[in-house]
Amino acid sequence: MDKHQKIRKAVIPAAGLGTRVLPASKAVPKEMLPIVDKPAIQYIVEEAAAAGVTDILIITNRGKGVIEDHFDHSVELEAMLRGKGNEEVCRQLEAVAHLANIYYVRQKETKGLGHAVLCARDFIGDEPFAVLYGDDVIIGEDPAIAQLCRAYERYGKGVVGIKEVSEEAILRYSSLAVSPLEGRNFAVSDMVEKPNKEEILSLYSILGRCVLPPQIFDLLAVTPLGAGGELQLTDAMKALTLRDGMVGVDFTGKRYDMGNKLGILEANIEVGLRHPEIGEGLRAYLLELAKTL
Predict the structure, then answer these.
(1) Is residue 52 within 8 Å of residue 146, measured between CB atoms?
(2) Is the pLDDT at 258 greater than 50, yes or no?
(3) Fewest CB within a 10 Å sphere: which of 63, 87, 118, 282?
């Protein structure tokens, strides 16, 4: 494996049903729920593009055609905006259509994250690739996935984005056995998905991002169904870890769980406060509101 190989392809699994944010996600994919004035998935695509990714495969399912529409040109809308002199908004819409080469494949059945990634096998071929979970928007000056890509290029091993979480949260996520490497990088020697209390390896968990070698597909193909009767990506990454080791990057940036009602509100408030158009007004509103709480 060429440890210096650049990451140019990414997969965004966006086939989940969004049951935690119903009824909002009944007819609108949760990935299209807005953070102020952009849908969540646009932040994720922008992050990948900022890291140098040129080709993105979005894994969708039935009812998610609006995602494809969002990243396409809207000729009539752009013409109308131009006619009204709204050049700046028109430029923003055109930029969305040119972020990257975006492709789509449908996950016919929702069989878990591992199955979604396996759907990307033909698209990826024989090169390393990034995975950006469709539920997780991470906002920071240095794109989170770029931090992982640099670690892959440095170490030549699979990389996972990690954060310390509470003991309560670790039971719902994954738990990793880690030891310090350098800076914010850790060696990962084991992992367990949705551990029992006795199985907790540390409070470091995989959150929303990874960079994987193409060998993960052979491992996914022979991985038995795991938690929830689904094909778990973590189970295949555990096999990869035990065989070759992996690297964990405690990435900088704030993560928002867009599959969670509170996460959606936090993202809107915090991004809104930094928004050049509404930030000042929102701050004044929140200061007044806080007096009544």
Answers:
(1) yes
(2) yes
(3) 87
The dihedral region occupied by 77, where left means phi > 0, alpha psi between -120 and 50, and beta the remainder, is alpha
Angstrom distance (rounded) from CA 178 to CA 185: 10
**Amino acid occupying residue 77:** L
Can you read off the two tokens belonging to residue 101?
Answer: 């080469």
Q: How far apart are CA 173 and CA 163, in angstroms?
A: 11
Rounded-to-integer distance, Cα 257 and Cα 33, Å? 12
CA distance linking residue 166 with residue 171, whole number of Å = 9
Residue 148 structure tokens: 């992982």
Residue 33 · residue 25 · CB < 8 Å: yes
Helix (H) or strand (E) holding 264: helix 261-273
Q: What is the pLDDT of residues 199-248, one digit of tens each?
A: 999 999 999 999 999 999 999 999 988 878 888 999 999 999 999 999 99
Q: Is 168 left (phi over 0), alpha (psi -120 to 50) or beta?
A: alpha
Prediction pTM value: 0.93
**pLDDT value at residue 2:** 46
- Interatomic CA distance for residues 96 and 278, integer angstroms: 21
User: Residue 4: its pLDDT value, please?
Assistant: 62
- Kindly report which listed range (87-91, 117-121, 240-244) carries the lowest average pLDDT score: 87-91
Residue 271: name the closest of 284, 287, 255 by CA.
255
- Which of 260, 259, 231 lies closest to 109 in space, CA to CA? 231
Q: How far is CA 262 from the centre of its chain?
A: 18
Of 224, 207, 223, the residue nearest 132 (C-alpha): 207
Residue 127, burial from CB neighbour count under 10 angstroms (0-12, 13-18, 19+) = middle
**Closest to 10 (Cα-Cα) out of 120, 147, 114:** 120
